[in-house]
Amino acid sequence: MAICNTDTVGDSELVFIAAKFTSLKKLCIKNCPISDTGVKSVGEGCPSLVKLKVKRCRGVTKASVCTAFLHNSCDAQLSPSREMSRPTKANIVIDMEDVDKDDEMGIDATEAKTSRKKRSVVWKEFEIITNSGDMKARCNHCKHNLAYKKGGATTHLKRHLKLCTPRKATLVGKDKGPKQSLLSFDVTEGDEMLSIFKYDKGKVREELVKMFVVHEYPFRMVEHEFFTKFCRSLNPKYEPIKRQTLKLDCMKMYISEKESLKLALAGINKISLTSDLWTSNQSIGYMCLTGHFMDSEWKLQKRILNFCPLEPPHTGLAIADSISECLIDWGIEDKISTITLDNASSNDLAVRALKENFEAKEKLHFGGKIFLVRCCAHILNLMVQDGLTEIRDVIENIRESVKYLKLSPSRLYKFNEIVKSLKLSTSKRLILDVPTRWNSTYAMLECALENKSVFSRYKERYYNYKWLPSDEDWKRAAEVSKFLEVINDVTKVFSGRKYPTSNLFLRQIWKVRKMLNDMSTDNRDFVKRMTLKMKEKFDKYWGECNLVMAIGAVLDPRYKMKLILYSFPKIYPADDFQRHIDDVRESLEFLYKEYLSVDSQINSSMSSATYDSNPSQAKKQKTDDFDEWVITNSDIIPGNKSEIDMYLDEGVYKPGNEEYEDFDALNWWKANSLKFRHLSKMARDILSIPITTVASESAFSAGGRVLDQYRSSLKPETVQALICMGDWLRQDFGVELASNVENECMQEG
Fold it and tell me: What beta strand segments (E) does 333-449 contain?
């Protein structure tokens, strides 16, 4: 430390302030002549400080001190008390350690002031240089010099970095020059447009999520080395992601897609449901709930709404509560018209509980007459299974023969060699049936009958084969196969998901009933046993008229009431069929009046407005000669005739032979919606009702693929997101995946 003393204190007093020259630390000031408590910075507390000047201090080598010259009138401005307290000597403490450091580093005293740290990001890419005595900022990329002023703005430096070509090349990669823009063809509504390609990382991750969800790829695939190589071969800018990131992206997209679907369902008037239960390989029970509705373009739509775990026991109340929670979550609890379920006893209790809830809210549509729809595919399956149990001995030798050959690869190879030697024109291989699936039994019999001659040849060469069917066995198998073919065709019609099925219900059921009636007259014992068992099951479920089946047929312009009048006498007993016909007509009128009442308020307001604006129309019109002539020479349509009466009084629609099978009843009603304004709305909702639970059961095939043995640890909420969003995206993009059931039934040996 050193003390610099001043011996003379005059009118223009000197204030010596010592500063540390290499830092911006707080100044050390003692015995300030102006402030008794000391000051913290130059000139603080002095009301008359007008000028600062740098001079040499006599007692300090190479040190600068600030000399404050007070104005000549400074004394006049100070108070007397201030003058009396003014000291005669100021002792200033100067830290000589900092001065010595400056001497060692060769820093001149005039440059000892330390500038503050530069915080702008541009200084990472610029350096300050001296060019011809002027300070400049030089770009590290292009070496261009720009104006620089200490403490000045850096906006012009940032602007230069955006336009710096060498910097752009450095960011792209190792290129030394600018990279040329890539052109791509953007297809919009069928027109190709030339556009500049821009890599969008967010878009790539979005499409990656869609690919994995739609095609049910496992999440771990995104981390595979060759998957990354493949993506980088398409675009070198591809950035790999982890499977956890892909999962989070899937959940985000699921939430977004769900909100979009909610908005779409808000504009739907009535929604039909299908539901079924399934147990995964995790031993977790899942309930699938699918919604069916008609969009604004009269296209039949279906969406999986829920694929949620259902805790045991799976009672009717548990099922009803789970369905109610789902409907409330989607905001469609007031839009449900029907629900299609199988024949499990728990489903009957669930339907009763749901009906009570809807009745309490006065939201039970159609008066509850058609609220429950029995899955007709499930009924057919029960009926055929009962019939096949009665003739198990008829096809036993064929089943054992196929099992014997399928169990040994060498036997199957020898069998196929005989097929080649005989040059049989069949591509079907042997299939072993699943006893609980009659369609697999039909596939087994069909393949075995085509290879009938091969079995006898195989027996001639290999004596260990003991189950060769006899000629009688083959005849019986052919009869059973012929019957199962009809059932198989009917099931395929019922299982359609892209066209309405409720209008096709009656004609297909009548076809099955007619076949059972014909088979009941057969004298062969095995046919009688099989037919009797199946007729019992048919009468149990279809002994009473199914209103969805009947009303759907009436609303098909090819059938109307004609099919009812023709088929009911053949389906129901002679003393009962007329009652069912009357029930159909009454229910049809009831449903039509319900739709009519919805628009009654609007119609009445429109009628009153018309009456007020045109009072002359209220006057009774007088008839003239022309009106009397029309009455006597023409058939007059009553003014109060309803749309349903007009529709039924017209003849049935007869499409061409080529158009008959592909006829779409929805398109017909769409074209005639102006003519039948109320009845077309009713047809729109009735024809959208599914008559099977195939839509929900197909989700279990997807569930089996998603929850395979390698991904059994997926959480239930993740499973629901993958199943539901996969269904939504496949519907939007028209993608179809093969069912596991079909693969198992039709697998080749």
Answer: 336-341, 372-374
